[in-house]
Amino acid sequence: MDNVFVFDHPLIQHKLSIIRDENTGAKEFRELVEEVAMLMAYEVTRNLPLEEVEIKTPICTTRSKMISGKKLGIIPILRAGLGMVDGMLKLIPAAKVGHIGLYRDPVTLEPVEYYCKLPPDVSEREIILLDPMLATGGSASAAVHFLKEKGAVSIKLMCLIAAPEGIKALHDKYPDVEVYTGAIDQCLNEHAYIVPGLGDAGDRLFGTK
Asked: What would the 3-class secondary structure string for the chain be?
């Protein structure tokens, strides 16, 4: 699929399998989601531009490379996206963090916004949108809509797992948004859960039902 990148790194795949396991408790689930997000951050930032700078090592002065001032924004979709934030910030501590609060109406399955707080200079930042699961694509599409309304231009979505239906729904509306995921699963069931999936990511992160 265009603009879809699946992480095949053994560490990500190994940890993702433990995350999927129904016997994995909330504490271990949270830790693993954070670890996988940190590993994914390494790849999702691969194309950040570099510039040469002059530094002085203990031995001599030399030319070296640093990220060329590209501003990043990390935007979790509440509440499950919160589980991925700390892993990202461990590698990108200077990134600004916004929040988009959405919930899925249990009858219509459509996303409903209840909170949106973004960095004021969102239009100048490369945005990494976080949500463990891309299921129907409704929440991701709504979040992208809010970001674009605020002026965001460069948006990437990072998730643990994705359903083909969700990818298609997102790209039907926003083909420019790159999707980074640990796996593309089989399908959605009649309740719009990803199969085989990992259950409800928010409930498993926070120990709720």
From this structure: CCCEEECCCHHHHHHHHHHHCCCCCHHHHHHHHHHHHHHHHHHHCCCCCEEEEEEECCCCEEEEEEECCCCEEEEEEECHHHHHHHHHHHHCCCCEECEEEEEECCCCCCEEEEEEECCCCHHHCEEEEECCEECCCHHHHHHHHHHHHCCCCEEEEEEEEECHHHHHHHHHHCCCCEEEEEEECCEECCCCCEECCCCCHHHHHHCCC
Q: What single letter denotes the amino acid at residue 102?
A: L
pLDDT of residue 192: 87
CB 140 within 8 A of CB 185: no
Residues of the chain with pLDDT under 50: none
Residues 38-49 have pLDDT tens digits of 999 988 988 888
Report the relative pairing of strands 126-130 and 72-78 from DSSP bridges. parallel
**Residue at token pair 């979709």:** 77
Q: Which residues are marked as active site?
A: 104, 108, 200, 203
pLDDT (0 to 100) of residue 107: 80
pLDDT tens per residue across span 59-105: 999 999 988 866 899 999 998 999 999 999 998 888 999 999 987 77
Cross-strand pairs, 129: 75, 157
